[in-house]
Write a structure and sequence with these properties.
The structure holds 3 protein chains of 3 kinds. By secondary structure, chain B is α/β, with parallel strands linked by helices. Chain B has helices at 9-18, 30-33, 50-56, 67-80, 93-105, 119-127, 200-213, 216-222, 232-241, 252-260, 290-301, 303-311, 344-361, and strands spanning 39-41, 44-46, 58-63, 85-90, 113-116, 155-167, 192-195, 227-229, 246-251, 265-268, 274-283, 338-339. The longest helix of chain B is centred in the last third of the chain and has 18 residues, at 344-361. Chain C is an alpha+beta fold. Chain C has 8 helices and 22 strands. In chain C, helix 2 (104-114) packs parallel to helix 4 (148-161). Classes of the chains: A mainly alpha, B alpha/beta, C alpha+beta.
Chain lengths: 572, 364, 368
């Protein structure tokens, strides 16, 4: 083998490997810029549009739309109240369960861990619907039972702001769990043990060591969950509207669906939400910028769990009740509702029917839409993990100038409610020289765009914890970027990448806001059809459809889980 | 139906003779209609070239209606014309309008037939040159006021109308509303529902009852803190379950659907009349499948299409066709006294005021 | 390996690293000849790690040139900057950077696999490297099951396995406990000699630097403060900073007595009137020069020693027992001097004694 003076074989590390890295990075940045900023341009344009309604391109520009936002103070306050309350609840659920399941010897840990992510598979609409069956002040099953046993009025009111926040948090808690769990799993337990050894109690250890160490992950999750809540639609629509309680998304929905559609105002609302998210992200960057959160160090560690004694059963109960409240009860409620003609608390033989399932399955559109949704979900998740993985890597690890800016750019689709962002995407891809509008491709692009923040956040929080020297060592050993990616980075990020794949897949299958507007006649997807059924058919049929969707997602997830587990075993 | 001055005498003459001269070209829009031979297919007449339509093989239908409704329409058409595949895209009326306008201003013309849920939208679309003019031979089955002006842009594919409904468990017979003024009863505080401002039907109810009872009527109504929803299904769902006691905008179509499920609800048709909203359907300009589009519109206008609109549970829209059969339940549209806006300019002009008042009333 | 023995194995020329307006490393130059161990010594934040990382290719310098074995790795003027993976170096990281998802064997084999080695050749080399660090029996262990010291050894084996000619060490021993550290120090030195590998070693630990280096470069705030053999650095610190950093020194400043000083000798008088004789080491003194008096060179005696100069009567302020040695603080004309000696245990605080030091141990320092 020919070697030069440094002992380096000359045939390795040719220049093209370096350029592969440059090409990948350039392509990723290019794709992100195109996918995000291109629609954003149209959104900004619309928000300044004060010309004639629905004349494109706009004929006059001004600030009137932003000025008009002051008329919606009550709605902005509503939104913030619900969003903050729900974020805090979701993070509490997520953090507690993540800590319990990754750090303690809770019984049935594996089973619980699998169950914990189930609420996320459940379409938010399903959860909202189930809880509205349960907790509507008048017809809610719980309240019917309550009155049946002599109670007065309503025991719970799920349509109150806190009720809405509760439902949102219940289903978003899973996301917090997945994100925080990924962080905790990759944390060196000796850091916790160090605290215990020096006499710190478990609670103290958790508060003073665990919490600060996973802080970037938790903060990242918080920002993400907050944004998700800010843009969440289903719960507010199903539960808030009956109580005359509107948040920004439901207000936007009304504004764009009435004639004349008030798109410019909706766009201004969306852009303003981005301003809020921008500030939050800026604060996050400031907080995490000067601290090191490397917890996967080159010092390898053994995954160890804490023995919590009899408390393990209490912790088990905590996790179990979360699963019960977010999965078992809602799904059972929906099953119960879906086999009735008119869902009531007390079963009646004459009220029983299987028509809802028959009808749901007989709809051709639903069957096609289901296939499309699954295929789109698989493709989006796979491409999404690649793109967002590279993106997270560029943001966290590269020396690319302007990478800080990228992080803000990536946040845009998250911060702007999907319903509004969808208009930006529609205008953008309509005039795009390559005719993809109305096809499967535009949905794929839309999904990749709107789930970019989800992927980047999930993967970033794991990358942040990865000691840089793990990669640098490979580099000094002479490994090319691609080889390091394959042998070091990807294997180490595996839990984070799998989590991201899972989250993106499910998010795609249950996507609503962007799909409604961008679906073409040949590219229908599932969730809009379900919401449609809720609008135009009945809650019982909707329940049946939502259950079918949930079952299909669950089956796909199980297959994915089995496949990845098998491949993981083969590797070992 | 009240007498209305026809905008174009020539058209009226033509329509009168329409049925008798079914095989002759219509003269309402001579330039277009004359070179269109009319053929009879199944039991209706079409100005479309069926061979060409079948060669086109498909058409795209944009509608405000729900997924199952839209699916049922193209499916029913597909049964009659299996060689033509009907595809559809649906969205709420306002979004549908924005989407269509955006597509057209980007030079993308993919829609063949489009249906809006209220006249203001259709008229706006017409003003922007959204329709292609096609006078269907089946237009002769319609009164001129149920067709666009000028004729050939759109037609009333169906009518939905609303009275009052109440939950019989929650409302004592003595308190039951009988006339429109009864919806203002303070008993319904926090227990009455209506539709959101995006509903064309709601707009027309607001417009018509304001005409009858003055502006104060809705101000009184606002005091009851009504709840607003997006669809009639939600209104009836809540009514049936007792979440609300009275539905102020009870569409007959929804009543039929829920009554069949055994919901404890009752429908009231106030003597002053039932506000009715037309759904408007027409062939889009630059339709990529013009012959299939025409055939579809002819079919919709014919008794075959109209029967589907009247009888499908997701639709249950009344037909304004002169020879329309009875609706499910045995009644005909003409058995009800309907309040349909006739002064389109006044209606268009009132839209902003309605949106403002209604959004404010529902807490938006 | 070729005739390139005349060229330095590592040659760093006018290297500077700036982050925005902050200069992390000022213009530094140094070189190491083949087989030599050169240590960059300095407190944290002095730029030693940045310099090392720049040599490795993990940090992009602002200007200057880096040549390894005569091959240019970086040259700001010529626009050359080879990425780390093309520099053919090897490095041991402070955090060990052991890949937790691989076995010990796979960790050590990495560099060889990158170089397309496989089969028995690979196995032999890896086992050889592991045996070298006494980790042979652990080859099949999962890397996540190792103790700190074992990980350190694996990191070392990995760095050596592909027989690099230049090895970089980034404070490799700082995470080990004291006992292990002194063991590893010797082992590393042995290994480095045996493999005849040129190494660039970064540490903030003086003993480590003294024990392991052929050449030490002391860095301070991004600049080179002094360079030399361990003996030179220790015995003849150039500046107050080095004197202080390199070991406990007493720095004494005073007015130069020009009439008694000559080229080799320097005499100063302190503010309190004590006269101190020292050597100038060829350095040019200032008006108020500083002399370094190493604590171990100061001597105490109960009676006045028989020497002509540098003898003072002092009072003991404090005695601290440190095991092998003791440390005594005395009052010397109003200021404190520290003496470190063995067998000082007889002295007690408050005692009056005589302090002396040979003039050749009072080193004139250059001004900062």
């Amino acid at each position: 083998m020919a070697t030069d003076a440094t002992g380096m074989p000359t045939e390795i590390a040719p220049q093209r490997l370096k350029s592969l890295q440059m090409i990948s990075m350039a392509a990723t940045v290019g794709v992100v810029t195109l996918f995000v900023l291109y629609p954003v341009y149209y959104l900004l344009q619309a928000s300044f549009d004060v010309g004639g309604a629905d004349i494109r391109p706009p004929t006059a520009y001004g600030l009137d739309n932003y000025a008009a936002l002051t008329n919606y103070q009550a709605i902005i306050v509503n939104t913030l109240v619900v969003t903050f309350a729900a974020t805090i609840m979701a993070l509490t659920f997520g953090f507690l369960t993540a800590w319990i399941l990754t750090r303690t010897n809770v019984p049935f840990q594996r089973t619980l861990e699998q169950l914990m992510v189930v609420p996320y598979y459940v379409t938010p609409l399903l959860g909202a619907l189930a809880w509205s069956f349960l907790g509507a002040p008048e017809s809610g099953f719980i309240n019917q039972l309550w009155r049946h046993f002599g109670g007065e009025a309503a025991l719970i009111d799920i349509t109150s702001p806190m009720g809405i926040a509760w439902v949102m948090a219940l289903f978003e808690g899973s996301v917090a769990f997945v994100m925080i769990g990924a962080v905790m799993k990759s944390m060196d337990p000796s850091l916790e043990e160090a605290s215990q050894v020096i006499g710190g109690s478990r609670v103290r250890t958790m508060m003073r060591v665990t919490l600060p160490l996973v802080a970037p992950g938790v903060l990242g999750a918080a920002i993400f969950v907050f944004a998700e809540m800010l843009g969440s639609f289903s719960a507010a629509l199903v539960l808030g509207t009956p109580a005359r309680f509107y948040v920004i998304t439901t207000a936007i929905y009304q504004l764009v669906s009435q004639y004349p559609p008030r798109m410019p105002l909706a766009a201004a609302m969306g852009v303003s939400l981005f301003a809020v998210m921008f500030l939050m992200l800026y604060a996050y960057r400031r907080i995490t910028a000067h601290r090191s959160y490397v917890t996967i160090s080159g010092k390898a560690f053994r995954p160890r769990v804490m023995d919590v004694g009899w408390l393990r059963w209490v912790l088990f109960a905590v996790c179990a009740s979360y699963v019960l409240l977010s999965v078992v009860i809602p799904v059972a409620t929906l099953i119960y509702a879906s086999v009735q003609k008119l869902a009531v608390a007390f079963p009646l033989a004459s009220n029983f029917t299987l028509d809802n399932f028959r009808q749901a399955l007989s709809l051709n559109a639903v069957r096609d839409a289901m296939t499309n949704s699954i295929v789109l979900g698989l493709v989006t998740a796979t491409l999404g993990v690649i793109i967002t993985g590279l993106l997270a890597w560029i943001i966290q690890r590269s020396r690319l100038p302007g990478r800080g800016l990228l992080e803000y750019v990536v946040m845009f689709p998250q911060a702007v409610p999907r319903l509004v962002f969808a208009f930006g995407m529609m205008w953008a891809w309509l005039v795009f020289p390559i005719p993809i509008y109305g096809t499967f491709w535009v949905l794929l692009i839309a999904y990749l765009t709107v789930f970019m923040p989800l992927g980047v956040r999930t993967i970033s929080s794991v990358i942040m914890q990865l000691d840089r020297s793990l990669d640098e060592c490979g580099q000094v050993c002479g490994a090319s970027w691609a080889y390091r990616l394959q042998t070091i980075t990807v294997p180490l990020l595996r839990p984070g990448l799998l989590a991201a794949w899972l989250l993106i897949f499910v998010a795609s299958v249950r996507e609503l806001g962007a799909s409604i507007l961008l679906m073409g006649p040949n590219s229908k997807v599932m969730t809009p059809a379900i919401v449609e059924a809720w609008f135009s058919s009945s809650s019982e049929l909707t329940a049946a459809m939502a259950l079918i969707q949930t079952a299909v997602i669950a089956i796909t997830m199980t297959i994915f889980y089995l496949l990845t587990r098998r491949s993981a075993q083969q590797e070992v | 139906m009240m007498e209305r001055k026809a905008p174009q005498p020539t058209r009226r003459a033509a329509l009168k003779g329409g049925l008798a001269l079914a095989t002759l070209p219509l003269v309402a829009n001579p330039a277009r209609a004359q070179d269109r031979p009319v053929t009879k297919v199944l039991d209706f007449n079409t100005g479309a070239d069926i061979a060409k339509a079948e060669a086109e093989g498909e058409f795209l239908f944009y509608t405000h209606d729900g997924e199952p409704a839209a699916a049922s329409i193209v499916e029913a058409f597909g049964k009659d014309f299996p060689k033509i595949k009907g595809k559809y895209v649906r969205a709420q009326n306002g979004s549908l309008f924005s989407k269509t306008i955006a597509e057209r201003s980007a030079g993308k013309f993919n829609v063949d037939v489009i249906q809006f849920s209220e006249p203001a939208t259709a008229i706006d679309f017409q003003k922007r040159g959204g329709y292609t003019r096609y006078v269907s031979p089946e237009a002769s089955g319609y009164a001129p006021e149920h067709l666009s002006n000028p004729v050939g842009d759109y037609f009333w594919v169906g009518v939905t109308f609303a009275g009052i409904a109440y939950n019989t468990d929650k409302v004592k017979a003595a308190d039951a509303p009988k006339a429109w003024k009864d919806i203002l009863n303070p008993l319904w505080l926090n227990g009455i529902n209506a539709k959101q401002a995006n509903s064309g039907m709601q707009f027309i109810q607001w417009f018509e009852l304001r005409k009858l009872y003055g502006e104060g009527f809705w101000k009184e109504f606002a005091k009851l803190r009504p709840r607003g929803f997006d669809s009639r299904v939600q209104l009836y769902d809540r009514l049936a379950k007792g979440d609300d006691k009275v539905c102020a905008l009870a569409e007959y179509a929804g009543y039929l659907l829920h009554k069949q499920k055994g919901a404890p609800i009752e429908f009231v048709a106030p003597a002053d009349g039932l506000p009715a909203s037309q759904l408007l359907n027409g062939v889009a300009d630059k339709a990529p499948h013009p012959e299939a589009a025409r055939l579809f519109v002819d079919w919709l206008m014919s008794n075959r299409g109209q029967a589907h609109y009247q009888n499908n549970p997701f639709l249950y829209y009344g037909s304004v066709r002169k020879d329309a059969p009875p609706m499910p339940g045995g009644t005909r549209l003409k058995d009800f006294k309907l309040l349909i806006p006739t002064d389109m300019d006044a209606l268009m002009g009132a839209r902003e005021a309605f949106n403002k008042e209604w959004n404010g009333m529902l807490g938006l | 390996m070729s005739a390139g023995t005349t060229a330095p194995a590592i040659d760093v020329e006018n290297l500077s690293i700036r982050y925005g307006s902050i200069t992390a490393v000022g213009s530094v130059s140094f070189s190491a000849s083949p087989g030599e161990q050169l240590t960059l010594l300095g407190p944290s934040g002095c730029g030693k790690t940045s310099t090392l990382r720049a040599v490795a290719g993990l940090e992009r310098p602002t200007s200057g040139a880096i040549r390894i074995g005569g091959r240019t790795m970086f040259d700001s003027d010529k626009g050359i900057n080879l990425p780390a993976e093309q520099r053919g170096l090897s490095m041991v990281f402070q955090s060990y950077a052991i890949w937790p998802h691989m076995t010990v064997f796979e960790n050590a084999a990495y560099g060889l696999r990158v170089r397309n080695e496989s089969g028995t050749a690979l196995k032999e080399k890896v086992h050889h490297a592991l045996d070298l660090v006494k980790m042979g029996p652990y080859a099949d262990r999962n890397a996540s099951q190792l103790s700190g010291g074992q990980q350190q050894r694996v990191a070392l084996a990995r760095a050596c396995a592909f027989s690099p000619t230049v090895l970089l060490f980034d404070e490799p021993l700082s995470n080990l406990d004291a006992k292990l550290r002194s063991e590893m120090r010797i082992e590393l030195r042995e290994l480095q000699r045996r493999l005849r590998v040129t190494s660039l070693y970064v540490t903030h630990d003086l003993e480590e630097a003294l024990a392991m280096s052929d050449q030490i470069v002391v860095m301070r705030a991004g600049d080179i403060e002094q360079r030399g053999t361990p003996g030179e650095i220790y015995n003849y610190p150039r500046t107050a900073f080095v004197a202080d950093f390199v070991g406990s020194s007493n720095l004494v400043q005073g007015q130069r007595l020009t009439e008694v000083s000559d080229k080799a000798r320097i005499v100063i008088t302190t503010d309190s009137g004590n006269v101190l004789h020292g050597v100038s080491q060829g350095r040019t003194p200032h008006e108020r020069p500083t002399l370094s008096l190493r604590a171990v060179h100061l001597a105490l005696s109960p009676n006045r020693p028989d020497v002509p100069v540098n003898v003072w009567a002092v009072t003991i302020k404090r005695v601290v027992f440190l095991g092998d040695i003791s440390q005594v603080h005395v009052d010397w004309g109003g200021r404190e001097l520290v003496i470190r000696q063995t067998a000082l245990t007889d002295y007690v605080a408050g005692q009056s004694v005589f302090l002396s030091i040979a003039p050749e141990h009072c080193i004139l320092l250059e001004a900062d």
